[in-house]
Fold each of these.
Amino acid sequence: MAKIHLIPYQVDEVEDTAAEIPQGVQMIQAPDVWEQSDEGSGNVIAVIDTGCDTNHPDLEGQIIDGKNFTNDYNSDENNYEDNNGHGTHVAGTAAAAAGEEGIAGVAPNAKLLIVKVLDGNGSGEYQWIIDGINYATDWEGPNGEKVRAISMSLGGPEDIPELYEAVKRAIDSGIPVVCAAGNQGDDRPETDEYAFPGAYNEVLQVGAINFDREIAPFSNTNNEIDVVAPGVEILSTYTDQKYARLSGTSMATPHVSGALALVISIAEEQFDRKLTEAELYAQLVKRTVPLGYPKSAEGNGLIALDILNQFEQLFQTFNTVFK
């Protein structure tokens, strides 16, 4: 059986320091709802990737648990350090702590479950991925915490039934599964490019845009794209306690898994109950803005977390009685 791989990505630059809210986090309006959502507090995001730099100052306090499913580190399941860089970058976009001297992720109060299923070369066996998804689905924290979103910036050309079953099981357990669309795009929305598990109907498949709100030329297009998020020159955490700007649908994906942590906090407080996976999907999609591209390129559009509050203010203005 073929292996599954990191969706190829581009390292644009590596930096020693960074003290800012990255542009992508701002673009999806995350800071505008931090107060309302308590920055995603109480929610756990499972990052299924190459591991994580557990000593990174922006991440060390965010990691609640983890497990290694690869052959790296002599198959030591307790060593889920990142020997690639990709997983650390994804984790930081989702939930880096908004400290004084580092960067803020989308949900700075959320916790991270690090699931290492890809080795230092960014390659993994399908069984590792399947086991990693099942681990995240069944995981329970020291205080009864459960995973509320799964983030997967990986993919392969093959539709493996066992992979589909693992994804379906997570979703049936109430966990939204967020997947990168893939970077085999040819800049033509009318031609389809598929990577699995992203292409499964049940997952939230994420395409990439740049900061000019243009679809990234590398972003896969197909009839299962759900949303788009920033994925070009994204600043986030990196190995060796550094920071890097990377490009790819891999970088767009954790913007959405982080956004889910914020949406869960807001919506479940409003409804005063736990929402189903379908309800969470609906709540997320309500917070999108179409960009004018074909649905095969942008799905429902760009994540815009504060859009409902903006609508509310607009309606209040319209409903004001002028004497």
Note: The radius of gyration is 18 Å.
Amino acid sequence: MFERGGREYGQGHYPFMVVLHTGFLAACIVEAFHRPFLPWLGWPMLVLAVAAQGLRWWCIRTLGPQWNTKIIVAPGMPLVTGGPYRWFRHPNYVAVVVEGFALPLIHTAWLTALVFTVLNAALLTVRIRAEDAALQSA
């Protein structure tokens, strides 16, 4: 995107996002060692986590070369309105929200699910505002 004249937005929250998501994965592993697998909860959460990954990859495939983890907008690039973007303005964030509670709950890691969901909601408030502003400025 930089080769196409792209400009990066929202750099201030990006380090927090990296720390939050890395901590989320680490917390899932650590807490799962101390929690039981409950089939009535774990199997449905596994299905949701896999579905979230399917949605994420659909987003990545739909965005093609416009996809990345940062907010980079290149002039003249059209707003993507196909794939899951037909129904949701930010479908990848739907995947992140579902993954945020489903992945830890596969192994009953309710504390990780709760803390990540709350912190991620705050992060997404900032992130979506920054992304929308960036898209409008392009």
Note: Helices lie at 14-32, 39-63, 91-105, 110-137.
Amino acid sequence: MPATDPRVDAYIAKSADFAQPILAHLRAVVHAACPEVEETIKWGFPHFMYKGMMCSMASFKAHCALNFWKAELLMAADEVNREAMGHFGRITSLKDLPSKKVLASYIKRAMQLNDDGVAAPARAKPAAPRSLEIPDDLQAALDAVPAARAHFNSFSPSKQRDYAEWLTEAKTEATRTRRREQAIEWIAEGKARNWKYEKC
């Protein structure tokens, strides 16, 4: 019986209908190829660990992504679609994925790199940090709750961006209002946007 993390179950269950079979398939292939794998949640999405970071998967509004931690070493000679966040492009259905055999071979090679203690190549830092724009309605809501404003100002730019993007991604005004109210409640308690997935 593979060791699974209930947070990954919850992540899959909360994902869009199109994404659930993709994520379940990827999870099953990883476990089949690497029975010793450990699941966890890092940066808000599922990661698979084997003697360190091995690979991760994520779902978005209209696609999924699969990412290997040492992809530069695994895929140097391969023609891999490197669009979107992952290394197989925008995965919108199971048809967008390589066969189980091909995926398993990547996983086995990733395991071997970790067995051999090969470090991931150093990643170049971006030339300029992404601009951080806080929506006016979030600014006003923060100003109305001093505790929330104080905590928000102490957050790292990435934590602030998580809340800003959560609001701007809302498709309706009602959703945006609900998210803003929830955000202020969490921020006033000093919680990051993905606090549920953070280890204590």
Note: Residues 12 and 42 are 14 Å apart (CA to CA).
Amino acid sequence: MSRHVQLADDLYERIKANRQEGESFSDTIERLIDNRSLRDLQDVFDNEQVGEMRDAIKIPEEEDTAEVRELGKRFD
């Protein structure tokens, strides 16, 4: 069963912009409603908290990079 709904033009364009290849509008809306995005949190955290999160991600990445370089030197 299908239903017809009216959407504001800007909302229609936003949904259309989020459609993936081969996905129907219903599929797109279901995906957008069911799967929350990190963008949903943009108004939850302030800039300081975002900076702390970025640092928490960056530091391990830098440590991993250094470890991989050291390991690579062993094989040179």
Note: The chain is about 65% helix and 0% strand.
